[in-house]
Amino acid sequence: MSSLVKSELFKLRKDRIFWTLVIVLIVAAVSYPLLVFFVLKVQSVSVKELYASVALEGVNSYIVKFVPCILAGFFISSEYSIGTMKSIGASGNSRIRIYFAKLMVFSFGAVIISLTFPIVMAAVGTIFYGFNDMPGLDYIVQTVGLTILYALAFASIMALAAIILTDSGKTIGFLILFFSLFDTILYTLSQRFTLIETIYNYSAFRLFLDISKFNLGNGALLKLLLVPIITFIIFGLIGSFVFQRKEIQ
User: Fold this and answer.
1) What global pTM score does this model have?
2) DSSP string, 14-65
3) Which residues cross the membrane (predicted)?
C-alpha cells in the first residue's frame, strides 16, 4: 500500500495540471488584496472580513467544489485513455488498495487546492493591513480543519465519478454540472418533501455553507465534523466497490 501511495504522490508532484491550478489560485489570492490596496486605495480593511467573507464564504465556496473537478479528470480519468490504469491493475496489487491509494493522493491534492486561496489571501492581507481585526487562532484552525474535511468529502464524490466515466472531458463536464445543479435541485425538492429536507439539511452540500460562521455551538460543530467524514467513508467504499467490478481496457 505504501509503495502505491508513493507512486501516486510522485505522479501528483509531476502533474502539470495540479501545479497550474495551484499557481493560478495563488495569483488570484495575491491579486485581490493588491487590487484593493493599490487600485481602490483602501487603506484599512478587516482581515477577519477578508478571510471569512471574501475568501471562505465567497470565492473558496466555489473553489472547493469546482477546481478539483479538473484535477479528477486529468489525474484519475485520463489514466484509462493512456493505458496507465491497465498497467496498474496488472501490477499484482488488489484493486481496493489501488483505488484507496489513488483516492488518498487525489484527496490530498484537492485539500491543497482548497486551502491555497484563503491561506494566501489572509497572509497577503496581513502584510498590507497588519493584524487589523484579525480572526482568532481558534477560528482559523476551525475553518481550516473544516475546509479539509469538506474537500475530502467532495473529493470522494469526484473520484467515484472519475472511475465511472473514465474520460477526462466527460468527468470534468459531468462534475461541474453536478456540483452546479445538485445542490439547487436538492434544495428545491426539500421545500416540498420532508424526507428530502432532512437529507438536505444533513448533507455535505448544505453544511459546507456554514464552515465560515462564527460562534458555532457544540451540536452544530459536531454535525459539521461528522457529516463530511461519513460522506468520505461512504463514497470511498462505493468507489472501491465500483472499481473492483469495472473492466479496465
Assistant:
1) 0.92
2) H-HHHHHHHHHHHHHHHHHHHIIIIIS------HHHIIIIIIIIIIIHHHHH
3) 21-42, 62-82, 103-131, 143-165, 172-190, 220-243
